[in-house]
Amino acid sequence: MTQEYKGARGVAALLSPRNVAIVGASDKKGSWSITVNNSLRRTGFKGAIYPVNPRNEVVWGTQRCYTNLASLPEPPDHVVVLVPGRAVIDTIREAGRVGARSATIFSSGFGEGGDSEGRALGAELASAIADARLAVSGPNCLGNLSAASSFMTLTDRRITELKRGPIGIFGQSGGIVTAIYRSLSSRGMQPGHAVTVGNEIGLNAADYIEFFTQDQDTRVIACFIEAIREPARFKAACSAAQAAGKPIVAMKIGGSELSRSAALAHTGSLAGSLQCFDAVAEATGVIRVDTIDEMTEVIEVLSHGKAPGGGRIGAITFSGGLKGLLLEAAERNDVNFPPLQEETLARLRDVLGIGTSLGNPLDAGFAALSSKEAYFKCIEIMQADTGIDQILVQEELPLAEGVNEKANNLLVVNEMAGAEGATPIAVVSMASYMYSDYSRSFRAGFPRLPVLHEVDKALKAIKRAGDWRRRAALARNAPMLAGREPPAAARESLARTRTSHASSRVLGEAESKALLAAYGLASAPQIVVTSADDAAEAAKGIGFPVVLKLVSPDVQHKTEVGGVVLGVQEESAARAGFAAIKAALAEKVPHARFEGVLVARQINAGVELVMGVQRDPEVGPVVMFGAGGILLELTKDVAFGPAPMSMEQAMELISRTRAARLLEGFRGAPACDFGAVAGALVALSRLAADFPDDIESIDVNPLVAMPGKSDLWALDALIVLREPDQA
């Protein structure tokens, strides 16, 4: 498929056709052809609609039905495909021959069930689409809509009119897409586009994101994703949307958990598909949510006004109970209500005419609502407090005219929220509630003011919107790979190991550390020896105490076979340790190859950390960091981030773990060099990004940070290469 029919241009062809041909047109009651025709006519499509079916001369009353696409009075522009099986492939090939630009394939049976016959048919369909040079949504979808072109093939009879709006939706489930559309519309948020993408054999998520990024109407992109077809293009499209200031709010299910069941490295066993998705996607402007309700609240924040710059909140309420709910929800969602600045408190006391008991930002509301002027003044004063990133005001929209006159205050608050440089303001209610036509009409009067439902959902949405804004700032400083070559030492080291490990994916500790060293990641002094006398000599040269470790390409976990001897303090102990390791291997794994013993300086102090890389099947390499050593798998104090990453992103990744407290100096211990650890993560992330097709996973455990120093030692390392047929 040429680029003309991919990306933004392909999606534009799909959503703004000049005419529509419906292949498989039928008079059968309840047929999709009738529903699609009705949808197009109901929503005002201005182009011609051509039914196609060689078995019918007339359909839908009096409309002429054509034998094939070639017999139409003009070349078809968009083809709706409703025929089954191999006839779909024939239709796509014919559409290409007669000059169509796009198609939507409703039909299923092209591999979505995982059967071999369906997968083969899907591969044949993909070839037909490429040969025809068509922009195709589907197969196995429910149609699309675009208000800008009055075009709707979506089979949802509840949608009676199309309106342009700031939200674009796409998803691999037609049912979820229509549910998202209805949820947003019911709250007065109008999606201008909705695409059900099905199996994505033609266009995929990257194409739709590219289109919405360039679409002038769209400000927020909503999507439902089961699997990612082209990871590199997906990440690039997300980054472009982020740079354009367009958040992507995604529900993500499915993934790659089963691929980790046989992981050889700790990172693989600890990483989950959603953790990997979050690590990469959030860094490129994606906000993942779990439910449609959560998506609705987040989009409400992002499509009205400004995302908050942080998680510090002030609120004006008229209920002590709501105050308690807000405080508890804040703790659950990692936001806070900080003490107001003294100047703010003094000004509030003056406006409200109260004494010095005012001490909590939520207390302001109890007196504020007694006077409209005081209410507005309190908001103005709290907007001036530099310790507040977001202001909440309690209110619900009226269901009918005259039932809640004080809600008219929101029209003024809307202007206050939209002022240049003003602190964002949002409306919050105690509980979720239904909107009426009047509510939606009333709500349209304040476009700069998010109207959020229920405190827990509201604070979670504010937190996610603030995180998006913060991560967008971090992304602007992320490293660029274009034009940067990997270190020559790394290329040479990897080439040597590929040659010497033709029959094994797993690199030995010494080889793993050599590859890490090419990126500046230091190990304690070490030597590989092949005799007991050499072990004694090496230990003496390195300096006691030392540790002895088995070197065997057939053993990954050395301690389980007696392959590690700690605390060697003299030459005789080094000789004995070498002999013990060799004997243990022969006894416990008799067929394993013995290639020697690694003698290394033993580091007995410092904070034990772990860092690693896992190549996820959907999003590529992901970096892990956390508390290391023997408790790694027990505590699982780890966090995941993108590859490559900037120093700022690395610092943020560290801060998401409890290990950060150890590095800062826990209970009076001297602090470690935070920057040195972050620098090591940046280096590891660059290694992963430089060789994404060669490296499956990396484990560095433990990575020891020395208190009071900048020293950082990789004490053990394991690198797993990708299978040759994977790379």
Concise account of the structure shown:
This protein is α/β, with parallel strands linked by helices and 727 residues long. Helices cover 38% and strands 18% of the residues. Among the domains are: 3-226, Rossmann fold (3-Layer(aba) Sandwich), CATH 3.40.50; 305-449, Rossmann fold (3-Layer(aba) Sandwich); 526-602, 2-Layer Sandwich (Dna Ligase, domain 1), CATH 3.30.1490.20.
Descriptive overview:
- Helices cover 38% and strands 18% of the residues.
- With 727 residues, the protein is of the alpha/beta class.
- Among the domains are: 3-226, NAD(P)-binding Rossmann-like Domain (Rossmann fold, 3-Layer(aba) Sandwich); 305-449, Rossmann fold; 526-602, 2-Layer Sandwich (Dna Ligase, domain 1).
- It has a 7-stranded mixed beta sheet, sandwiched between helices. Strands 23, 24, 25, 26, 27 and 28 form a 6-stranded antiparallel beta sheet that branches.
- A hairpin with a 3-residue loop joins strand 23 and strand 24.
- Helix 1 packs across helix 6, helix 6 packs parallel to helix 7 (231-243) and helix 20 crosses helix 21.
- The longest helix is centred in the middle third of the chain and has 21 residues, at 455-475.
- It is flat and about 100 Å long.
- The two termini are 24 Å apart.
- Mean pLDDT is 88; it is low at 258-271 and 356-369.
Q: What descriptive keywords fit this protein?
A:
Dna Ligase, domain 1, seven-stranded mixed beta sheet, alpha/beta, 727 residues, six-stranded antiparallel beta sheet, Rossmann fold, 25 helices, 18% strand
